[in-house]
């Protein structure tokens, strides 16, 4: 069976502006220098000083007791699910969640858990929706043990769960005996956009993780945080899945560098996202969702164009975007894109959108 390639065709003209994903950022020279200087040990033996420093820092940042370094965010989600649930358990998550749509059916394949998709605007749901989805504890019902929230919600438009809404969902989950897991792939984008400490959003969660390969610009790595008992249990799954590492400090050093240098600047990505949205909104036929962080979604239906067609034509002029649905395009700002790149992208999208009038940058 053939799958559509994720990578764009390399025979195409060079990429001038890459808005495909913040995962495509490259480590800067300074970040690489920090990696070269990292003190290293054996991560699997709990003895890599740089990984240990990163984990301590992440536990403090999220208001949790302990933390564990992992190669990827997907592994954080899957290990958290494996640790929190037993086969046959039901996880409640937004229907558009990454664990539902983009992890290869991992919850079913690995934890043998089922996921119940909840509705809600912009990838979020409220306590009433959660309550309405709770089942009576009957022998023939799946045990509901875990609620998963995504901060920011990716498919929800890079939306930020307000602290109050999170607290309400968290309290409801706990009152009803469920644990709560936060997929914090872009947690720092949420914290910067909301102007709060990350721990204000994460302290009550039973597990939470942050990805370093997105807006933070590291080449790989994610850190899963939780109680000391949770992290102990999670370590067994890390070992079973082959996620225990050796001189991983070389990668943890990039993550520490990112925490020191690349968090506050996420505000620039958010400003560039707003600039991009404002530019795209001027292109006739495009319907642009108001960005809250670094993800800009727009709908091409009004321009008589599919998302794939727009992406292909933009690509032929050096601008990379991704698609999420028949008419839904995602453009993602990040550390390797500046305001001039954003303006160029707007110009190219205007040129390839049929209803688009000749466009000038103002
Ligand atoms: C990217 C992403 C993941 C997966 O992270 P990887 O590091 O790419 O495995 C999980 N959840 C969300 C919301 C994401 O955006």
Automatic annotation (TrEMBL):
Biological processes per GO annotation: glycine biosynthetic process; L-threonine catabolic process
Residues of the Aromatic amino acid beta-eliminating lyase/threonine aldolase domain: 19-301
Pfam families per record: Beta_elim_lyase
Cofactor: pyridoxal 5'-phosphate
Protein family (similarity comment): Belongs to the threonine aldolase family.
Complex and partners: Homotetramer.
Protein name: Low specificity L-threonine aldolase
Organism: Rhodopila globiformis (Rhodopseudomonas globiformis)
